[in-house]
Amino acid sequence: SAMRDERIKKTKTVCTYCGVGCSFDVWTKDRKILKVEPQAEAPANGISTCVKGKFGWDFVNSEERLTKPLIREGEAFREAEWEEALDLITRKFTEMKKAHGPDSMAFISSSKCTNEESYLMQKLARGVIGTNNVDNCSRYCQTPATMGLFRTVGHGGDSGSITDIEKAELVIIVGSNTSESHPVLATRVKRSHKLNGQKLIVADLRKHEMADRSDLFIQPAPGSDIVWLSAVTKYILDQGWEDESFLNNRVNGLDDYIASLETFTMDYAEEATGIKKELLIKIAEEIHSSKTVSILWAMGVTQHLGGSDTSTAISNLLLITGNYGKPGAGSYPLRGHNNVQGASDFGSMPDRFPGYEKVTDDAVRSKYEQRWGVKIPAEPGLNNHEMISAVHDGHLKAMYLKGEDMGLVDSNINHVHAAFEKLDFFVVQDIFLSRTAEFADVVLPAAPSLEKEGTFTNTERRVQRLYQALEPLGDSKPDWEIIMDIANGLGAGWSYSHPSEIMAEAASLSPLYAGVSYELLEGYKSLQWPVAKDGTDTPLLFIDEFPFPDGKARLFPVVWTKPLQFEEQYDIHVNNGRLLEHFHEGNMTYKSEGITSKTPNVFLEVSPELAKERGIENGTLVRLTSPYGNVKVECLITDRVRGKEVYLPMNDTGDGAINYLTSSHADKDTDTPAYKEVSAKMEILRAK
Ligand code: SF4
C-alpha cells in the first residue's frame, strides 16, 4: 500500500481556518500534501470537512512563503540571518524601554497561532517588557460576545457543545452566515432541521443559505437586532411565559431588568426594525413552545456600536426562558478563526491574564509576579484599537505583531497605515509578506500549523492538539520559538523545549486549565474548559451554577445604540462578511489553486431593484466611496440582498478591500470596530 513508502507520513492536525475546529489526518510525502483524511473519532466534525479544510493547504508550500528574516533598508527589505535580526530587535526594544518606558511598546498576538504562542506573547509583554499592552484580533470580531456573556453568565465561550446545538428543539441564528462561515457546524443544523424536526429561525440582512432553509426569516433594519430581541423578551415576560423556577433559583436582577424593558414594546420594535409585530410575536411563541433553544450569532451582531449590548440581550433572553445549563440550550457565539477563542483564553488581552483572571485583581497579579519574578502594572493596557490612536498621539512607539494582517483587517485602514508609518520600530512576524509586513522594520518568518506542535481551542471551548507534519520551510521557525528567542535576547532565560511545557505552566497558573495536559490531549482526545485538576472537563456549562460568587447569573439591562448616521449622499448600505471558499482577507486561500479557480475575484452583491435603478449589469465596475476611502469592484446581481443594501465579501487584498470604507467608530464597551455600519455612494466606472 501507499504507506509502505517510508516517506509517506500521516499526521493528526486541526484545521487552521475556522472556529469549528475540525481535526483530521493529513497525508504528506516529504513536503507534498497528498490528502486530508477525516476520522470518525474527530470530536467536532467526525468524517466531515469543508472545502477549506480539505483543499486549502497549498499556501504552506507557496513560493511567497517567507523563509528568511528581512530587515528594512530605506524603501526595501534585505534578507538577513536570524542572529542579526534578533540582535537588532534586542537592541531596539532595550533602547525603547529605557527611553520611553514599557508602555511605549505594544504586542499583538494571533488567532492563527497556538494557545501556547498566545500565552508566550502575553508573558513577553507582561513578564519581560512590563506592559499590559497586549491584544489579539478577537477585538475585531468576538470580544462583544465575550462581554455580553461575562456580564450575564460569567464565562465567555459557547455554553455547550456543537452536539448540543444539534439537540435543540429551536435554533435561532442572528447575524451569522453559518453555512459559509462555519460550514461543518451548519451541516449539523441542516441535518437536525431536516431529519429531527428541529425548528430554525434566522435574522439577517441578507438572504443566505440558512435563511433560505429556515422556517421563519426576518430582515431587521441594519443595527436593530437588539430591539426585536428585547421586545420578544418583554413579550414573553408580559405573557407570563418566563421560566419562573429558573429565575427564582438561579438568576439575579429580574426587577431592574424588567424595568429596563419598558420601551421595548412590540409597536416600538415594529417601527425600529421594520418587522411586522405579528412575526415577532410568532418568534416569542416559538421560543415559548420549545423546550430547548440555542441561539447562534456572529459578526452581524457584534460589529456594531452596540455589539456588546446586543450580545447581552441574547443572553438575557436565554436566561428569562431558562435556556442555560441543559442539553440543547444555550448561547453560541460562533468564533471565526481556528483559535480566536484560545488567543483570548490564554491572556493576550490588555485586561486579562490567561483564563480571564483580571489584571486589576491584586491577588491574581501577585501570583504571576511571584512566578515570573517581575512587577506587572495594575492598570489594563491598551487594546488594539487604542494602540492605533496612541501611535497617532505619539505615546506608542514600537510594536511587535505576529500572524495578523492588521493593515488589512482593522477598520479604516488608511488611518491604520498612517499609524504604522509613524512607528519608530515595527516587528512583524508572519508566513507571508502581508500588507502589514510591508510597513515593518523587521519581518520574521514564522511556521504555519502543519510545521509545528501546539493546541488550538475551537468555538465550543475544546482544546485540541496538532502534531508537526512538516519541517519549517527554509529558515522559518514556529512562533513560540521566535518569541522565546526575543525574550531570551532581553535576558528572560526561558528554556521551553516543547509547547507541552508551556501548557503545563499555563495550567499551573490558571484555574480554568488546572487539569489540562498534553497526555490528556493525545491523538484525537480533547478537553473543553474549564478543566478541573483531576482532568474532568466541561462539555456543558452552568449545569449547577454560574461562575459568580453566589453562583447565580445576572440579567443585565441594555439600551439601543442607534447605528452610525451618514450624510444623505452616502445612500448605499455596505454589508460585509465571508464567502465559503475564502477565509477572511484571503491571504491563505488565494494561494490554493483548487480554491482560487472557483472564486478568483471579489464581487459586490447588488439587488435587482438597485441594478435596475442604476443601470447595473453583472460585471459592471463600480466605485464605492465612504467618508473614509473607496473601493473598486465588479457587481453581481442577486436577490440575496434587497433595496440599497449591498454586500461586499471581505476577501480582497487590493482595491476591493472593505476596510478602505469602514470607520474608526467602535462598540462602546469593547472597541470592536463597527464594521457593519458603513454607508457609501456608488458610481459606475465601466459598464459591463
Ligand atoms: Fe476547517 Fe471550519 Fe471547514 Fe472545519 S468547517 S474544515 S474547521 S474551515
Automatic annotation (TrEMBL):
Cofactor(s) needed by this chain: [4Fe-4S] cluster; Mo-bis(molybdopterin guanine dinucleotide); [2Fe-2S] cluster
Keyword Oxidoreductase tagged: yes
EC number, UniProt record: 1.2.1.2
Broad class of enzyme this protein falls into: oxidoreductase
Keywords attached to this entry: 2Fe-2S, 4Fe-4S, Iron, Iron-sulfur, Metal-binding, Molybdenum, Oxidoreductase, Repeat
Domain of life assignment: Bacteria
Residue ranges annotated for the 4Fe-4S Mo/W bis-MGD-type domain, each copy included: 8-64
Molecular function via GO: 2 iron, 2 sulfur cluster binding; 4 iron, 4 sulfur cluster binding; formate dehydrogenase (NAD+) activity; metal ion binding; molybdopterin cofactor binding; NADH dehydrogenase activity
GO cellular component: membrane
GO biological process, one term: formate metabolic process
Family statement drawn from the similarity comment of this UniProt entry: In the C-terminal section; belongs to the prokaryotic molybdopterin-containing oxidoreductase family.
Protein name, UniProt field: Oxidoreductase
Residues of the full protein shown: 251 to 938 of 985
